[in-house]
Amino acid sequence: MAEVQEFSPEPGALEWETPLYRTALAQYEQALPHANVEELVAERLRYPERALVVSVPVKLDAGRWRVFPGYRVQHSTVLGPTKGGVRYDAEVTLGECAALAMWMTWKCALLRLPYGGAKGGVRCNPRELSTDELQKITRRFTSELLPIIGPQEDIPAPDMATNEQTMAWMMDTYSMQVGHAVPEIVTGKPISLGGSLFRQEATGAGVVMVIIRACERLGWSLGEQRCVVQGFGNVGGVAAAELHERGARVVAVSDVSGGVHDEHGLDVPALRRFAAERGSLEEFLECERVTNEELLELPCDILVLAAREDQVHGDNAPRIKAKMVAEGANGPTSLEADAILGERGIVVLPDVLTNAGGVTVSYFEWVQDLGRLFWDRAEIRAKLADQLNDAFDRVWKLADEQGLSLRSAALVAGIREVSGALTARGIYP
Ligand code: NAD
Predict the structure, then answer these.
(1) Is position 30 within any domain?
(2) Cα 177 to ligand 1 centroid, rounded to whole Å
(3) Going along 293-417, which residue ranges are E strands?
C-alpha cells in the first residue's frame, strides 16, 4: 500500500491539531518534495498567518440566550486578500477552518487567482435555528470579524448551510459600519446587491466541467456514464442537474437524510423541485431509499462527493465501485482512502481543482463589483470553462511528467505559485 506520512505536530501546530488539519498538512508534505520550495518558505506555509476566535451571543426565539463559538482563519496573504467560505455546522472548529483555509490557498493559486486562502464558521446546528436566529448570528459574527475582513483584506463567501441571504446580511452589517454600500466585501450575494450571474451554479457546474475534461482525456463518453452524487445542496444539486442535462445517467443522489436510488436513472429536476419545496429528500419515497453509506458503495462509473469531509475512508475505500471519484466537497477522501483508491486505479479528481469553479466565479464577482461593471451569463460561463480547463491541463501534464497523482500534481502546481511569490517577496521583516 502507498505510504501515508504521519504528521507529528511541532509546538506551533498544536492550536490547529485536528484530523482534518493533519490531512491538509500531510497532503502538503507529500507534495513538497516535488514542488522545489526553499525550506524557510515551506516552513512558513505550514502555518496559517492569522486566526480569530470569537463568541457570538444571540437571544433565541424562545427568549433564552446562547453563545456560539465562531472562527476565521487566514492562511496566506502572499498573493492578495484572503478568500474563503463561512460555514454553519455543529462540527466547525479552529483546526477544521485552518485545514480548509490552507486548501483554499492552493486552490486559488492553482487557478491563478490573486488571493490566498481563508475559512470561517460558527459552531451551531443550522437546522435547529430559525431564519431570525440565523440573521442574528450572522450579523454579530460579522461585527466580530470587522478587524480582519475587508475587500482588500479578506472576502467571505457561502459554504455549508450559508447562502445568498447570509451574504446579504454580512454585506449589510459591514456596509452599515463603514457608512456606504460595499458589495465587494462578500461574494455569493444576491444579484440585486452586486452578486454575479452564474455564481450560485458555479461550483456544481465547474465540477461537471472538470469531469467532462477528464472523460475527454480518458476517452470516455459522458452519456455512457452512470453517476452517483452524495450531497444535494448548492454543489451536489447543481452537479447532479448538469450531469443529467448533459446526458449522463444519475442513478442515486443523497442529502443528510439519506439517498434515493434508481438504476434506470433519476428524474433529477423533479428531485430538485422536491428538495426545494420540502427542504430535504427525506420524504421522497417514489424510489428505493438507501443510506449514505450504501450510496457510496453503489455500482457506478462516476461518484461525485459533494456533501462534506471524510466520507470515503480506510473502511469503505476498498468497496467503492466507481471508476472515477470527483471531489465537489472539500476533503471528502481521507489520506488512507486516497492511497487505496490510487492503488485500485480509481481516478480521483481532487477538490482543489474540481470544486474551484465557486471561487473562480467569486473572483469574477469581486472584479465586477470593484469595477461596477457587470458581465453576462454566457461570458462568465465561458471564462470559467477556460480557467478550469487551463488548470486541468496543467495538472494533467504535471501528473503525467512527474508520475504523480492528480491530487499531488494539483497541490504541487498551487504550492509552486505561492512559494514563487513568497520567495520573491521574502519574509518580513
Ligand atoms: P450545502 O449546505 O448547500 O449542501 C450540503 C449537502 O450535503 C446537503 O444536501 C446536506 O444535506 C448534505 N449533507 C450534509 N451532511 C451530510 C452527510 N453526513 N451525509 C450526506 N449528505 C450530507 O453545502 P454546499 O455549499 O453544497 O457545500 C458542500 C461541500 O462543497 C462542502 O464541503 C463545501 O466546503 C464544498 N464547497 C462548496 C462551495 C460552494 O460554492 N458552495 C465551493 C467549494 C466547495
Answers:
(1) no
(2) 31
(3) 302-305, 324-327, 347-349
